């Protein structure tokens, strides 16, 4: 995919992976709409891009709200051109354990339905012109699981599944899809889980940090943009994740037994 001159929306781009992807795209000539619930952070990301010579505008936006998604699309068209790329990056860790009904509503809204709602708005336009690109930022939890947090594990599995469906259904219409599945990334989300008082939350943080090295958001952004340029679906910023995923698929029962042992080990500390 050629990036120079394209227009992208990046949700959750006030910090972390979203900010890094927005910056990386801008460095390649993409004009970026930065969306984030934290308006101050959104504008800070856009200002940093402009200071470096890129083009960006910011908007306070809830990535799971249809009206706010429409607002980002409208802003893109008004300031630049119609949207070419949609990066569904915004995500939440959600409640530990099984969570409540309200907890499940929140995490499914942000980690899954936000992707679906965005796709409903952008895909028909992309179909009509024969091009477009959707990036779903999921997680290694969508390929493996997330100890200590059912909502996160399930919603990220669903995000991967939805991205797969998009790629299969609309690939022949010229629409590209990439699904980003990192392990540990040094972001405000991981920092928040590290500092929680909840034992299931701490278990989740420990499992992430001990499974592989914790990389930077910039590393994830580089891997993501490389995949977009190559029109590659699966983005694995941690190379070791592929072996883990193959191990799981090779013998599911053995993998579950191994995860139970791993969980017992982490709980012992």
UniProtKB/TrEMBL annotation:
Molecular function GO labels: oxidoreductase activity
Annotated protein name in UniProt: Putative ketoacyl reductase
Keyword Oxidoreductase: yes
Record has Iron-sulfur as a keyword: no
Similarity-based family: Belongs to the short-chain dehydrogenases/reductases (SDR) family.
Species of origin: Mycolicibacterium chubuense (Mycobacterium chubuense)
InterPro entries registered for this protein in UniProt: NAD(P)-bd_dom_sf, Sc_DH/Rdtase_CS, SDR_fam
EC number annotated for this UniProt entry: 1.3.1.-
Keyword line: Oxidoreductase
Lineage: superkingdom: Bacteria
Enzyme class (EC, first level): oxidoreductase
């Amino acid at each position: 995919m050629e990036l120079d001159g394209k227009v992208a929306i990046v949700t959750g781009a006030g910090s972390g992976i979203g900010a890094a992807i927005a910056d990386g795209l801008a460095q390649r000539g993409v004009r970026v709409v930065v969306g984030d619930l934290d308006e101050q952070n959104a504008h800070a990301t856009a200002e940093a891009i402009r200071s470096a010579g890129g083009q960006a505008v910011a908007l306070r936006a809830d990535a799971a709200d249809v009206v706010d998604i429409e607002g980002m699309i409208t802003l893109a068209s008004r300031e630049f051109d119609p949207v070419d790329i949609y990066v569904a990056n915004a995500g939440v860790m959600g409640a530990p354990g099984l969570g409540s009904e309200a907890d499940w509503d929140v995490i499914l809204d942000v980690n899954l339905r936000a992707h679906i709602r965005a796709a409903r708005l952008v895909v028909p336009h992309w179909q009509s012109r024969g091009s477009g690109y959707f990036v779903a930022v999921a997680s290694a939890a969508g390929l493996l699981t997330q100890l200590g947090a059912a909502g996160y594990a399930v919603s990220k599995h669903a995000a991967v599944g939805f991205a797969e469906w998009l790629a299969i259904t609309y690939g022949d219409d010229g629409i590209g899809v990439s699904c980003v599945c990192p392990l540990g990334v040094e972001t405000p989300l991981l920092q928040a889980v590290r500092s929680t008082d909840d034992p299931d939350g701490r278990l989740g943080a420990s499992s992430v940090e001990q499974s592989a090295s914790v990389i930077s958001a910039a590393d994830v952004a580089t891997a993501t943009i490389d995949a977009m340029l190559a029109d590659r679906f699966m983005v694995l910023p941690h190379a070791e994740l592929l072996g883990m995923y193959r191990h799981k698929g090779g013998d599911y029962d053995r993998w579950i037994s191994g995860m139970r042992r791993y969980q017992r080990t982490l709980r012992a500390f």
